[in-house]
Design goal:
36% of the residues lie in helices and 17% in strands. With 455 residues, the chain is α/β, with parallel strands linked by helices. The chain folds into two domains: 152 residues, Aspartate Aminotransferase, domain 1 (Alpha-Beta Complex), CATH 3.90.1150; 274 residues, Type I PLP-dependent aspartate aminotransferase-like (Major domain) (Aspartate Aminotransferase, domain 2, 3-Layer(aba) Sandwich). 49% of the residues are buried.
């Protein structure tokens, strides 16, 4: 026992050391239960991760069965049937647009590996000057040092900027607050064309990859571009020999109503990063899938790709991935996510749009964001000192609803949002319950806000 630590004292370093955390002892379906017997609706599937729902015995059994066979072998010297099966199933879901898979333990690792694969690709082709990565402001690709550098989420970067090696960021595809002051119906996709300007400024001979989320995660909560945005991005990348990396850590495996969000845009990436729902919420897993073009360059060259992590490709994670994919198929959950997503989006717009603080409601599938504002006409954000998104989320939790919240969408200076992303098994009645509780929490905080401001 460490110096000063008392038996039974709190030994966990928490996100907020001053906050009381409820102890969750079990989960079932879309519900969480704490040690005092209270029940909470998990309206965000954790951090948009628990796609299958809680307490599924088949998932626990898959993990236990694999652990009894072999829990670990080192990827540099061995493979396992579990790893081979998981990789094949991932490729199969892409229609074999992706040819090879590298398994890791989470989304941040996946994005780090993706960029290293992009670098390896260019080295194998004799393009050693290509190393720079372009990404977007108000994006999020993870908290490891490389992934955070490519992220454009000011609120999460702020403390670590002196430690980050930045390449370049371009404006986001954020139609509600278009950085060019345009409307989607009359723009010329300036946010996509900004990529070509940046490539030319950096020098095409220096740019290795462009990384982007098809649909924004917690940095912009469900914001997504016009359908032709990524088609133009794909053309620009091809013209300048830049690899297109799509970060589907949050959107992959059915969250948007399709197996992968890139399917909404009619393009195929060179590299695809995965995590979160890849394991259904039952094991920390991530993956990088690469196209034939990328795989062939490595295999026809040195044939070597050495970066990785000790637990990369471990059979426990692989077994969970395979079972999660099978479960999604058996229960028709990707199709269900599409159907329930339409219902969720319609109900959110119906019930929340009249609220004075609700500025925008956006999303696809079971991934819907709500952005709050001070003025619905001017889109002026609320005072960030109010921490309105946190207040609403905490109030909702007190009422029995867990909802993910986020801030900083207005260039990191202000902006309040929440994200709905329940497990795919959610029913219409449960969605109605979520929205009823959330509306009560929002109404309460709006009334408190009015009282604070006074007459």
């Amino acid at each position: 026992m460490g110096r000063g630590q008392r038996a039974g004292s709190d030994a966990v370093l928490r996100v907020d050391s001053r906050r009381h955390y409820r102890s969750i002892v079990r989960g079932e379906g879309i519900y969480l239960y704490d040690s005092e017997g209270n029940r909470y609706i998990d309206a965000s599937g954790g951090p948009i991760l628990c796609n299958l729902g809680h307490g599924i015995a088949e998932m626990a059994e898959a993990l236990a069965e694999q652990a009894k066979k072999i829990a670990f072998v080192y990827r540099s010297d061995f493979t396992t049937p579990a790893l081979e099966e998981a990789a094949r199933k991932i490729c199969e879901l892409t229609g074999f647009a992706m040819k090879k898979v590298f398994l890791v333990s989470g989304g941040s690792e996946a994005n780090e590996i993706a960029v290293k694969i992009a670098r390896r690709f260019h080295l194998e082709r004799g393009e050693g000057s290509k190393y720079k990565v372009i990404s977007r402001w108000l994006s999020y690709h993870g908290m490891t040092q490389g992934a955070l550098a490519w992220s454009g989420m000011p609120t999460r970067r702020r403390d670590y900027v002196p430690m980050l090696k930045d390449d370049a960021h371009i404006p986001p595809a954020y139609c509600y607050r278009c950085w060019f002051g345009l409307e989607p119906s009359r723009c010329d996709l300036q946010c996509a064309r900004a990529l070509e300007h940046e490539i030319l400024c950096q020098g095409p001979e220096n740019v290795a990859a462009f990384i982007a989320e098809p649909i924004s995660g917690m940095s912009l909560c469900g914001a997504h571009p016009r359908a032709d945005y990524f088609r133009l991005v794909r053309e620009i990348c091809d013209e300048h020999g830049v690899l297109l990396v799509l970060d589907e850590v949050m959107t992959g495996f059915g969250r948007t109503g399709k197996w992968f969000a890139y399917e909404h845009f009619g393009i195929i990436p060179d590299i695809l990063t995965l995590g979160k729902g890849l394991g259904g919420g039952y094991f920390p897993v991530g993956a990088v899938a690469i196209s034939e073009k990328v795989a062939k360059a490595i295999e026809d060259g040195t044939g070597i790709f050495s970066p990785g992590y000790s637990w990369a490709g471990n059979p426990l994670g692989a077994a969970v991935i395979s079972r999660a994919i099978d479960y999604l198929k058996e229960k028709g959950l990707v199709e269900r996510a599409q159907k329930m997503g339409r219902y969720l989006g319609a109900r959110l717009k119906e019930e929340l749009s009249p609220h004075p603080t609700v500025g925008d409601i956006r999303g696809l599938g079971l991934m819907w964001g709500v952005e709050f504002v001070k003025d619905k006409v001017t889109k002026e954000p609320l005072d960030p000192k109010l921490k309105f998104h946190q207040r609403v989320a905490h109030r909702a939790l007190d009422m029995g609803l867990f909802i993910e919240s986020s801030g900083g969408c207005e260039r990191g200076k202000a902006g309040d949002m929440v994200m709905f992303g329940p497990p795919f098994i959610v029913t219409e009645d449960e969605i109605d319950q979520m929205i009823e509780l959330f509306e009560r929490a929002l109404t309460h905080e709006e009334e408190m806000l009015t009282a604070q401001e006074g007459p």
